[in-house]
Design a protein that fits this description.
The chain is 19% helix and 38% strand. The chain is built from one helix and five strands. The protein has a five-stranded antiparallel sheet with strand order 3-2-1-4-5.
Length: 84
């Protein structure tokens, strides 16, 4: 299983053979490699799933929101009152 984090494309970056994009990941700008995507060109506003700095899948906004909600649930862990 791999853990992917959704990000929204801000803009494509020049150089590196057109394989870099600047994306917004929960309010932080990150440079990612988009070279693994083979389904056409990305545009600002598109959503991708990122794993280890690489866009591995294009998703729609609803899919990105579901992924973020799942990540938030995983990050909560146990409340201190729930520990055995």
């Amino acid at each position: 299983m791999c853990l992917g984090i959704p990000g929204r494309v801000i803009r494509l970056l020049e150089g590196y053979g057109g394989q870099l994009a600047l994306v917004d990941v929960v309010g932080e700008s990150r440079r990612i490699n988009i070279g693994l995507l083979d389904d056409g060109t990305l545009a600002p506003g598109d959503w991708v799933v990122i794993h280890m700095g690489f866009a591995v899948e294009r998703v729609d906004e609803a899919g990105a929101e579901r992924a973020l909600a799942g990540l938030e649930l995983m990050g909560r862990g146990l409340d201190r009152g729930d520990e055995p």
